[in-house]
Amino acid sequence: MEPVLDKATNIRPSYIASIELPPRIGPVNVEDLKADLSDEFSLVSSNLDISQRNSLDSKEHIQVCLRIRPFTATEKENESQDCVSIQDSTSIILKGPKNSMICRLSEKNVGQMVQKFTFSQVFGPETTQEEFFDGTVKQPVQDFLEGHNRLIFTYGVTNAGKTYTFQGTEADIGILPRTMDMLFKSIRGKLYPDMDFKPLRCRDYIRLTKEQVREEIAVKNSILRLMKEVWQNFLYSARAHRAYVYTHFKKNTDLLSW
Ligand SMILES: Nc1ncnc2c1ncn2[C@@H]1O[C@H](COP(=O)(O)OP(=O)(O)OP(=O)(O)O)[C@@H](O)[C@H]1O
């Protein structure tokens, strides 16, 4: 039975009442909602050099990978329902949890409501940290080492597994330490061993003569000596202050007990 609404007491909130909808002109075209925007966000412009264009041509310019994490112990204890099923390596089917409102409504009206989502790559709950790194981040890091710009980020609701994926655990490191490892390995043996470069402003440097190197070392040593003296003086006065506080306190408590 339809609820009977008492019009006199059902007052619309003022913020709704105050909205004036613009008059609709002609039919609404919804086709552009499905527009493929990938061309507009294309990284390939005429300014890029040929090597960069080749590197990008073979791939999508934006890659969106999905990682589905396994249930945590608590979720298993609570018998959480699996709402995501992997259809193939790039798509998943999402079902509303059984007995949820959306599920009951959709079953009643149009059968169980399912939604399909497509990604560049889908990684299931059994995916290891190494497999995930190799399948997602390794190539962009390699591109970066060859001089291209790359941006990698994780995105998801709380508890989705972003920190685990990015940072990982001590026993099973994530994509960030694996990336750093790759970067440091790539410069191994390429480090300049001498100490005759000096940074200048933000991006420049100058090469020092032997005499200038000696002067730099002398300046640095005197700064270090000065810092050591300041630190020792600080420690000395901190100890003296503590000793004073202790004796003062002791004297007062002695007086009190007396
Ligand atoms: N691939 C995985 N394998 C095993 N455990 C995982 C995996 N991904 C996440 N977890 C576990 O799931 C829980 C939630 O993960 P995590 O803390 O990374 O989520 P988060 O997205 O960073 O959350 P928040 O946004 O709240 O910081 C943690 O207990 C984590 O150890």
From TrEMBL:
Q: Name one GO biological process term.
A: spindle elongation
Cellular location of this protein?
Cytoplasm, Cytoskeleton, Spindle
Give binding positions for ATP: 156-163
* Gene Ontology MF term list: ATP binding; microtubule binding; plus-end-directed microtubule motor activity
Listed InterPro entries = KIF11-like (IPR047149), Kinesin_motor_dom (IPR001752), Kinesin_motor_dom_sf (IPR036961), P-loop_NTPase (IPR027417)
Where's the Kinesin motor domain? 61-258
Question: Which Gene Ontology terms of cellular component type are present?
Answer: mitotic spindle; nucleus; spindle microtubule
Which terms are listed as keywords in the entry? ATP-binding, Coiled coil, Cytoplasm, Cytoskeleton, Motor protein, Nucleotide-binding, Phosphoprotein
| Gene3D superfamilies, sorted | Kinesin motor domain
One Pfam match, given by its short name, reads: Kinesin
Its family remark reads: Belongs to the TRAFAC class myosin-kinesin ATPase superfamily. Kinesin family.
Q: What protein name does the entry list?
A: Kinesin motor domain-containing protein
Question: What organism is this sequence from?
Answer: Chrysemys picta bellii (Western painted turtle)
